[in-house]
User: Fold Glycosyl transferase from Paenibacillus vini.
Amino acid sequence: MVLVSILILTKNRLDLTKRCIESVLKHTPEPFEFVFVDNDSYDGTPDYLRSLNFGKVIRNKINRGFAGGINQGLREVSGDYILLLNNDTVVTPHWLGKLLACIERDPNIGVAGPMSYHVAPIQRVSDGGPDGLEELDEYAERRGIQYAGKGFYGHKLTGFCMLISSDVVKRIGGFDERFFPGNYEDDDFCIRARIGGYRLWAAEDVYVHHEGHGTFKELSQDYRTLSLQNAERFREKWNVGRSAYEIDMFGYNPSDVVERETFFDPARYFIALKDG
Assistant:
């Protein structure tokens, strides 16, 4: 049986982290390990993670950002698959088993993600999601029956909950740390995965609650400013023919970028998981 490494990055919001971990423990019968990376929390999160007595805990004395923290965690995982999970999520019955089934039934799929509501449009449900967390499990199970086995190949996926085959990481490496503290590193990862020959799958029969911007609310800079800065970095890296403002406000077509690339050049697209 395969092992999944569930990698959770934290930066304060202990309340959300506890809720997330409790939901994983409740709804995940599949073999898994926890790997936690804490980006200099000061609200008791590190002590809580150590008190769990399971999983690996990496504590940073500075905020390494999303990409930097995830890359640290990727160096410590031992699973056949890596599940990136934001600490402001709540998982639901059968979530991991269904995501695994997506990848295992199609060898071309390297990355899979669920549907949610507070998420980019490509993975956003059209009905508004459940009315509250008390209805979450029932809503997710009802949706799982309605959309059993259904989904679609996405041009990108968002990193709030992303199941990745370890083969993808071997092929393209980790996340690009220029996108600090967060935003567009998941876009970049998905583009590199597609150039590397993998497909992305959005599982319509899996629903995971996402609070949305749970960590960014803790930062001193506002979310829009940070997002625009990384949109500009993304525009420069991939030569996207739109301004940073247009990319951030109206989006872009990742397939336009992927279709320009005729082969995977490791020198350009592989990001090594450096020590430290």
